[in-house]
Write a structure and sequence with these properties.
The structure holds two protein chains of two kinds.
Chain A (H helix, E strand, L loop, with lengths): L1 H10 L17 H30 L5 H24 L7 H23 L7 H22 L5 H4 L1 H13 L7 E4 L2 E7 L3 E3 L1 H25 L3 E3 L2 E3 L6 H17 L2 H19 L2 H21 L1 H11 L4 H5 L6 H13 L22 H34 L3 H25 L17 H22 L4 E4 L1
Antiparallel strand pairs in A: 1-2, 2-3, 4-5
Helix pairs in contact in A: 2-3, 2-4, 3-5, 4-5, 4-15, 4-17, 5-17, 7-8, 8-10, 8-16, 8-17, 9-10, 9-11, 10-11, 10-16, 11-12, 14-15, 15-16, 15-17, 16-17
Chain B lengths: L2 H25 L1 H5 L8 H6 L12 H15 L9 E6 L6 E3 L5 E4 L6 E4 L8 E6 L2 E6 L6 E3 L2 E2 L4 E2 L6 E3 L2 E6 L1
Parallel strand pairs in B: 3-4
Antiparallel strand pairs in B: 1-2, 1-11, 3-5, 5-6, 6-9, 7-8, 7-10, 10-11
The chains are: A mainly alpha, B alpha+beta.
Keywords (chain B): Phosphoprotein
Pfam family, one (chain B): Yop-YscD_cpl
Organism (chain B): Agromyces terreus
C-alpha cells in the first residue's frame, strides 16, 4: 500500500495534453468559478449588512471607518477567488463563500461587543480580528499557491507528526508559554501577540493521522478476534490508540484544556474508523476516553467544577462560586433565551453581560441578537461546509486524500459541536474557539488553511480523466 | 431610526442569510439528491463527442502514451500489467481508458472516473484498484451487480487480462 501511494505522486500529475477523444473531463471550471463569484458577492453584502445593522442598532448612525476595513477583507477574499481561477480552477465553489460569511458575521458580532465595552482603534478586538482575518486569508492564498498537489503532504507524514507534538508542547516551555484563564495553551511573543499553537497542531495531526493510517491500516483492520459481534484488534496493535489517548490525557492534566484533548482524540478515532471501517475501534476509544474523563473529573479540580456546572448550573453554590462557577454558562443561557426566535436584532441585545462574549461565548452573543432563526442559519452553513468536506473526501481517488479530506472536515464539525454543545449545556463546557466566528488569530489562520487544503483537494479530485457513457 | 425600521431591517437580514443558505443548497442539489436518471435521449447522445462507432478499436498515439505512462509508474512488472481498459459493448464500444495507478470508480455519480448513466447502474456501482500489481474489481453493493465473465462479483477479485466485466448494459475488458 505504501509504495503504491508514493508512486502515485508522479503518475497522477494532471495530463496537460488534450485528453483522448471520448474521454473527457467533466470540467466546467468557468461555471464553477462564476458560481463562486456570485455567492461571494452575496457573502460580502451579508457581511457589510451585518456591520451596518450593528451600527444602526447600537450607535444609531453609520460609521464608515469599520465598513471600509471590512471592504478591505472583501478585496482579499476576491484576491483568493482570482488566484483560484488560475491555480485551482476545478475547486469546490461553496467553501470560500461559506467561510467568508462565517468570518464576517463573527467580525460584526465582535464589533458589536466592542461598542458595548467602549473599545475602539487598535485596542478593540474587532480591528485585531480584521487584521488576523487578513493574515489568515493571505495564509490560505499561500497554501493554495505552494501546495499544488495534496499528495506532497504524504511525504511529510512523520515530520508533521513531529511538528504537531512540538506545537503542543510549546506552551509548556517556561518563559514562552502563558496561562490565561487557567489553561496553559498559549504562547506569547512580546506583550502584543499571543498565539494558540494547538490550533495549527490540529492540521498537522490530520496530515499525520492520514499518512500513518494509509501506511498501517492493514494491520489495524485485518486481524483480531471476534467478540460480541465485532472484530476487536490484537493487543499489540493497540499501540497507536493508546499513544494518542495518553497524549490527550496529558493535554487535560498539564495544559488543563479539556476541549483540545477531546478534539484531538475524536479526530484520531474518526480517521481510524474511516480507514479501517471497524466499529470496535470507536467502542474501545470512546470507553477509554470516557474512563479517562471520569477519573479526571474525580481527581482534577477544574474538570470536576466543569462537570458540576454542567449538571446543576442554576444552584446558588455553583452560580456564586468565583473561580470556575457557572455564572458565565447561566448568563449565556439567559442571553439565548432573551434572543428568542428572531433575536433582539444586531446591536440591540446585551451580550456584553456574559464574560468573554467575543470568543468562547460568541455563539451565545449571536444567538441573542440573531435568535434561533439566525443561529440555525449559521449551523446550516457549518453543515454545508462540513458536508462539502466529506464529499471531497469521498470523491477522492487516493486513500491519503480521502482520509485527509474527511479528517479536516470532521475536525471543524467536532470543534463546532464541542463549543456549541458546551454553551447550550449538551456536554460540559470546555474552552475552544468556534471556527471562523470567535475572536482569535490562531483559530482563524488554522481554519482558513483547512479551507485552502480542502479547496486544493477538491481541485485535484475533479481534475481526473473521466469517461462518460450515456446509456 | 425607528423601532419598526430596525425590525424590518433585522428580518430582512435573517431572510438574506437563509436565501444564501438555500442558494447553496439549490446549487448542489444534484449532490444531495443524486444524479437524475437519464432515459435514452438522442439529444443527450448528440451533446457528447462523436459516439461509439466513430472510434476504431485502436488509437495508436493515445495507447502508446498511456502505456508509457503506465510503464513509467508501474516499474518492473509493467510488461505484465494491463495499461488500458477497453469498452467492448454499449454506447461507447471501442473507447479506451488509460489505466494509471489510481483507483477507478464506476457509477452514475458525477465523481466516478467512469460515469455510466443508464437505468441499471447504481450511483456508486463498483471500483477497480491496483493491489500489489494486480487490478482488482470490487462491487460496491450495487443493485444490479457487477459480473466478471458472467459470474457476479461478491468479494474483491483479481481481473485477468481479457476477461469481460459487465456493469449495467456496458461491458469492458482490460488489455495490455
Amino acid at each position: 500500500m505504501s509504495d503504491a501511494a508514493t508512486g502515485r505522486v508522479t503518475a497522477t500529475q494532471p495530463p496537460t495534453a488534450t485528453p483522448p477523444d471520448g474521454i473527457r473531463r467533466i470540467r466546467m471550471p468557468q461555471r464553477l468559478r462564476n458560481l463562486e463569484f456570485w455567492l461571494l458577492l452575496v457573502a460580502c453584502v451579508i457581511n457589510a449588512g451585518a456591520i451596518v445593522l450593528v451600527q444602526l442598532g447600537a450607535l444609531g448612525h453609520i460609521d464608515t471607518q469599520l465598513v471600509l476595513l471590512g471592504a478591505g477583507l472583501s478585496v482579499l477574499v476576491f484576491a483568493l477567488h482570482i488566484v483560484m481561477r488560475f491555480v485551482a480552477r476545478d475547486a469546490d465553489p461553496f467553501l470560500l463563500p461559506i467561510a467568508t460569511v462565517l468570518n464576517g458575521l463573527g467580525i460584526a458580532e465582535i464589533y458589536r461587543i466592542d461598542i458595548a465595552f467602549g473599545d475602539s482603534g487598535w485596542e478593540s478586538a474587532s480591528v485585531r480580528q480584521i487584521a488576523w482575518s487578513g493574515i489568515a486569508i493571505i495564509a490560505a492564498i499561500a497554501t493554495i499557491l505552494l501546495i499544488r498537489n495534496h499528495r506532497v503532504l504524504f511525504r511529510y507524514t512523520y515530520l508533521s507528526g513531529l511538528v504537531a507534538i512540538v506545537l503542543l508542547l510549546l506552551p509548556l516551555v517556561p518563559g514562552l508559554g502563558e496561562e490565561i484563564n487557567g489553561a496553559r495553551v498559549w504562547i506569547s511573543i512580546g506583550s502584543f501577540a499571543s498565539f494558540q499553537p494547538g490550533e495549527i497542531a490540529k492540521i498537522a495531526l490530520a496530515v499525520f493521522f492520514a499518512g500513518y493510517l494509509v501506511r498501517n491500516r492493514d494491520s489495524l483492520s485485518m486481524v483480531g478476534t471476534k467478540f460480541l459481534g465485532m472484530r476487536f484488534p490484537r493487543a499489540r496493535d493497540l499501540g497507536p490508540l493508546l499513544i494518542v489517548w495518553a497524549l490527550s490525557m496529558a493535554v487535560i492534566v498539564f495544559q488543563r484544556d479539556l476541549g483540545t484533548a477531546l478534539l484531538y482524540f475524536g479526530l484520531f478515532l474518526v480517521m481510524l474508523y474511516v480507514a479501517t471501517s471497524r466499529l470496535s475501534w470507536v467502542v474501545l476509544g470512546l470507553s477509554l476516553f470516557l474512563a479517562g474523563a471520569l477519573i479526571a473529573s474525580q481527581t482534577l479540580d477544574y474538570v470536576h467544577a466543569r462537570f458540576q456546572n454542567w449538571l446543576e448550573p442554576f444552584s446558588d453554590g455553583r452560580y456564586d462560586a468565583d473561580p470556575g462557577g457557572s455564572y458565565q454558562l447561566v448568563q449565556g443561557l439567559f442571553g439565548l433565551a432573551n434572543g428568542g426566535l428572531i433575536g433582539t436584532g444586531l446591536g440591540r441585545g446585551s451580550p456584553d453581560i456574559t464574560p468573554v462574549p467575543q470568543s468562547d461565548y460568541i455563539i451565545a452573543s449571536l444567538g441573542e441578537e440573531l435568535g434561533l432563526a439566525g443561529l440555525f442559519a449559521i449551523f446550516a452553513l457549518y453543515v454545508l461546509l462540513v458536508a462539502r468536506g466529506f464529499r471531497i473526501g469521498f470523491a477522492g481517488q487516493d486513500d491519503f486524500g480521502k482520509l485527509l479530506g474527511v479528517g479536516l472536515a470532521f475536525v471543524v464539525a467536532l470543534q463546532v459541536f464541542i463549543v456549541v454543545g458546551g454553551v447550550t449545556r449538551v456536554i460540559p463546557l470546555t474552552g475552544l474557539t468556534t471556527p471562523f466566528l470567535a475572536a482569535g488569530g490562531s483559530s482563524l489562520v488554522a481554519n482558513w488553511i483547512i479551507v485552502a487544503l480542502l479547496l486544493r483537494l477538491s481541485d485535484t479530485v475533479r481534475n481526473h480523466p473521466r469517461l462518460v457513457i450515456d446509456g | 431610526m425607528s423601532e419598526l425600521t430596525l425590525l424590518v431591517l433585522q428580518l430582512g437580514f435573517l431572510l438574506l442569510l437563509w436565501v444564501f443558505v438555500f442558494a447553496i443548497v439549490y446549487a448542489l442539489r444534484s449532490d444531495l439528491f443524486g444524479q437524475r436518471v437519464r432515459k435514452l435521449q438522442p439529444e443527450a447522445a448528440g451533446a457528447t463527442p462523436p459516439s461509439g462507432s466513430a472510434f476504431p478499436a485502436s488509437k495508436p498515439p493515445v495507447a502508446a502514451a498511456a502505456g508509457a505512462a503506465g510503464a513509467a509508474s508501474a516499474g518492473a512488472s509493467a510488461s505484465e500489467a494491463p495499461s488500458k481498459l477497453v469498452i467492448t459493448s454499449g454506447q461507447k464500444a471501442g473507447t479506451e481508458f488509460p489505466l494509471g495507478r489510481d483507483e477507478i470508480t464506476i457509477g452514475r455519480s458525477s465523481d466516478s472516473a467512469i460515469i455510466i448513466r443508464d437505468d441499471y447502474t447504481s450511483t456508486h456501482h463498483a471500483r477497480m484498484m491496483l493491489w500489489s500489481g494486480r487490478w482488482m474489481i470490487q462491487d460496491l453493493d450495487s443493485t444490479n451487480g457487477t459480473f466478471l465473465d458472467g459470474v457476479r462479483v461478491t468479494a474483491p477479485v483479481p481481473i485477468p487480462l481479457g476477461a469481460t466485466i459487465k456493469v449495467g448494459a456496458t461491458t469492458f475488458e482490460l488489455r495490455r
